[in-house]
Design a protein that fits this description.
The chain has 115 residues and is an alpha+beta fold. The model has no long low-confidence stretch (mean pLDDT 93). The radius of gyration is 13 Å and the shape is globular. Helices cover 42% and strands 28% of the residues. It has a five-stranded antiparallel sheet with strand order 2-1-5-4-3, sandwiched between helices.
């Protein structure tokens, strides 16, 4: 798992962390090239993803979210849900979303074998 997460960070321009987390907010595995608390990043994004999932599935009748992207001034996050887990990729404010989508899907397929 760790090798796939490291490779994802290497492949995506502007990426500096990748993790597999549970919707319960627990970090399964992760890699970061910055001094950051991956446990906190996973916990916070799990809460946001749960809220978005509930809104789309129940309130808006929009179905289950298949990907999610948040962009801030200095931090961006790309999430791909899978079962009761999600792949989280953290990028700088100018990270390459196209690469995140392509390489994120590839990495998710590799991680599926562990779930």
């Amino acid at each position: 798992m760790l090798a796939a997460l490291k490779q994802l960070v290497t492949d995506v321009d502007g990426a500096w962390a990748a993790a597999l987390g549970g919707l319960d907010g627990l970090l399964v595995d992760g890699h970061s090239e910055a001094d950051v608390d991956l446990t906190l990043l996973v916990a916070e994004h799990a809460g946001l993803l749960r809220a978005a999932k509930q809104a789309y599935e129940q309130t808006l009748s929009g179905g289950t979210p298949s990907e999610w992207f948040l962009r801030g001034e200095t931090l961006s996050a790309y999430l791909l849900p899978i079962q009761d887990f999600f792949l989280l990729l953290i990028l700088d404010g100018h990270g390459n979303l196209g690469q995140a989508r392509v390489y994120g899907e590839q990495t998710l397929r590799q991680l599926e074998t562990y779930l």
